[in-house]
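Worked example 3 (structure in, sequence out).
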């Protein structure tokens, strides 16, 4: 959903995702394609999907509402989406849409061959020329999918982090202990930020020492790659995923850049907010980020940005001081270490 590119969303984001699945079922393709993941994500954020002519008015209206960019303009629940089809999940689906003009009807299926002892299936037409079926069976699949997801959304679910590999009891205890350390660290940074704001006491920032974190010799090159993300109008997950593959050096570069900004400057605050988004995404850590407002930062905002920037520096020195510690931290967050190792 488009709002997830700004790291915000709720159950209505799932309605958008269902709309993408419905589009593929009814149209035989996905709403947007492109030469790169970045290009596809930007289309989800800015472009309206094209609706083929063979869709019925009902199907067209449902897809248009599901795929609205604004969450408030979509169906507010999966049950509302099911109700839009005019039937309940327990009844047999029957298409109520008026028939399309003859010139727009899908080509007829091949005639069924005469019954034989061992009948053979007719050869289907080439895939590129087939149009999605609008039979009651296809609509049944749509409604069955929606009903199962609606029921699942009403059940209590306990979210648990998945571990990439099976760990021995002692190793699992160590990983969980580190996870608790990370949570306590984040809570400590949040308290420091609140104290700095309440007392209007700026935090003295100091540069990240490359020697203290075993930074690679070409550390400056990673900062150059992070600069493009920092200068973007807003944080995007697609760009962050590409930089995430660079591994620990990219994380260290982002942390180092946060120490150099003047947080009384709106442009620097926006750059820092983008880097917060990258670090939170790459490390699966929430709570160590500040969103930049559209105006010059207030003294309170400046104090908050400085406190969080200092927190990221202390995080790097404690949990990303070398490759082994960094990999251990990622496992504690339920992630797999990727990227280059120097």
């Amino acid at each position: 959903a488009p709002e997830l590119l700004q790291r915000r969303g709720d159950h209505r984001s799932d309605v958008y995702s269902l709309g993408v699945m419905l589009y593929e079922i009814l149209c035989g393709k996905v709403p947007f394609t492109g030469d790169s993941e970045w290009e596809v994500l930007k289309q989800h954020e800015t472009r309206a999907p094209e609706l083929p002519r063979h869709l019925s008015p009902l199907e067209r209206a449902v897809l248009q509402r599901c795929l609205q960019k604004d969450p408030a303009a979509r169906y507010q629940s999966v049950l509302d989406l099911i109700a839009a089809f005019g039937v309940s999940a327990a009844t047999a689906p029957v298409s109520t849409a008026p028939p399309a003009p003859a010139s727009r009807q899908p080509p007829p299926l091949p005639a069924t061959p005469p019954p034989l002892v061992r009948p053979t299936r007719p050869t289907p037409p080439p895939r590129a020329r087939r149009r999605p079926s609008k039979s009651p069976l296809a609509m049944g699949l749509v409604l069955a999918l929606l009903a199962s997801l609606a029921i699942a959304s009403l059940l209590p679910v306990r979210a648990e982090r998945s571990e990439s590999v099976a760990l021995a009891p002692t190793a699992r205890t160590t990983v969980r202990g580190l996870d608790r350390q990370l949570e306590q660290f984040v809570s400590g940074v949040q308290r420091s930020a609140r104290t700095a704001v309440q007392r209007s006491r700026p935090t003295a920032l100091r540069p990240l020492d490359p020697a203290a974190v075993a930074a690679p010799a070409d550390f400056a090159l990673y900062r150059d790659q992070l600069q493009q993300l920092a200068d973007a109008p807003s944080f995007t997950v697609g760009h962050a995923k590409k930089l995430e593959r660079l591994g620990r050096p990219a994380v260290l570069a982002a942390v180092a850049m946060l120490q150099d900004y003047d947080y009384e400057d709106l442009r620097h605050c926006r750059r820092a907010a983008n880097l917060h988004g990258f670090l939170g995404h790459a490390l699966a850590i929430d709570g160590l980020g500040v969103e930049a407002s559209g105006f010059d930062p207030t003294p309170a905002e400046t104090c908050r940005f400085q406190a969080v920037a200092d927190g990221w520096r202390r995080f790097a020195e404690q949990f990303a001081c070398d490759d082994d510690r960094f990999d251990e931290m990622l496992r504690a967050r339920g992630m797999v270490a990727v990227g280059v190792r120097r």
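Notes: Residues 169-199 form the longest helix (31 residues). The two ends are 36 Å apart (CA to CA).
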